[in-house]
Amino acid sequence: MARPALEVAEIFRAHGPAWRCAQAGHLSLGQLKVMSAIEQCRSAALGGHVLHCQACNHTQIAYNSCRNRHCPKCQGSAARRWLQERQADLLPVEYYHLVFTLPAPIGKLAWYNKSVIYGLLFQAAAETLRSIAADPKHLGARIGATLVLHTWGSSMTHHPHVHGIVPGGGVSLDGQRWVSCRPGFFLPVRVLSRRFRHLLLDRLAEAHRENKLQFFGEHRGLAEAKRFADWLQPLRQCEWVVYAKRPFAGPEAVLAYLSRYTHRVAISNSRLIALDERGVTFRCKDYRCKGRVRYKTMTLSVEEFMRRFLLHVLPRGFHRIRHYGLLANTTSKDNLAQARELLIDSTPQEIEDAQTKDADGAYETAEPSASLAWLCPDCGAPMIILQSFERTQLPRAPPAGTGES
Is 89 helix (H, G, I), strand (E, B) or coil? Predict the structure, then answer.
């Protein structure tokens, strides 16, 4: 794959140090760590290997990756590893895609309460799906769901929402049969929307009573219980956005979708166009438009680009990919085996129990393993490691004309 003409790392390397000084005291430790990791990614600062191709004598240096979950360069390989682990979890049924979105006023509160409100978003979306699906008036079954948190819109503004990938059916409440949903229809969106609204607002009010929320600036007055209750009231009356897309066209389409969404960051390197005196220009979508005119370009000052990117740094240890119901990590192996048995009435195949942990990994480096092979860019033959060097240590004799891999 050709390297993008411009990368987020280049923007941070060129302008990050001065901006960090200007923003001293206004950036969190997590944001500073993300900036540092991206700036150092695949550079001598993280160490690496000298590789040699015995077939054509090509030699090159491969620098280690930062493997930070917010790094655009590292998330492609992380997504591929994750997908290999999840392939065994797919069932031979239709899959549906739903999106649960926080209203803008609550999204603003999440700027200063990420762990609490993002956690409530996950909980409310998962309980909404499970409770409505378990209702005999709708499906009457125990279902599974994979939820993925995104906190950005196409222009990197703050827009918290979760994408849900859900099998089209579930195990009956008595555990004796598989209950399929109607073809092309999973659950009624309006019912999901109102249940989601009720659950999230109730849990948000509970979090306020337990003093789990912080308020700053224009929201400072909401620390008072009466004002917070009054602030919530209009949100109980308006319609919330729960969006259901058409079912996926088979398991391959589910995997293709997951490969694009599970390990996304605020912006990919492939969307960047230019860095010049005007700022950073990148591709984005205007969702108010239809057709080809939806795709546009946007230019932000370098400072605003970095600010928006760092808006989406998650709290340390916060899991942005979560599995519920039949797909919950601790019980997924047994649940999926039961589902397959009910679906095909035969001995279920053994399912690999892969538990995915989505931790920060801010300074982990990509060490060689038995499953990792470097291929020669000239002839395609496997390359061997001549030398490994640690962080900030240069190779003893860099080959002439080599560059970063």
Answer: helix
> What value does the mean pLDDT take over residues 224-250?
90
Collapsing DSSP to helix, strand or coil, 273 comes out as: strand
Q: Please report how the helices 29-40 and 302-310 are oriented relative to each other, as an axis angle in degrees rounded to 10.
A: 110
Domain assignment present for residue 112? The answer is yes
| Chain segment 267-278, per-residue pLDDT in tens | 989 899 999 999
Q: Which residue has the tokens 């308020």?
A: 215
Name the residue among 103, 145, 44 with its Cα closest to residue 398: 44
- Residue 358 is predicted with a pLDDT of 36
**Torsion region of 19: left, alpha or beta (phi above 0 gives left; psi -120 to 50 gives alpha):** alpha
Q: Is residue 280 part of a domain?
A: no
- Rg of the Cα atoms in the chain: 24
**Total tally of structural domains belonging to the chain:** 1
Nearest to 205 by CA among 241, 176, 233: 233
Residue 370, pLDDT > 50, answer no
Residue 400 domain flag: no
Q: Residue 239: which domain range?
A: 86-266+316-344
Q: Alpha-carbon distance 71 to 362, whole Å?
A: 9
CA pair distance 130, 241, nearest whole angstrom: 18
Half-sphere exposure of 348 (CA within 13 A, CB side): 19
Say what the pTM is.
0.81
Answer whether 95's CB lies under 8 Å from 251's CB: yes
Angle at 283 between CA 279 and CA 287, to 5 degrees: 125
**Helix, strand or coil for residue 227?**
helix
Rounded Cα distance between 363 and 390, Å, is 13
**Residue 13 counted as domain residue:** no
Give the whole-angstrom CA distance, residue 74 versus residue 69. 7
Sign of torsion over alpha carbons 219, 222, 227, 233: positive
The answer to whether residue 158 scores a pLDDT higher than 60 is yes
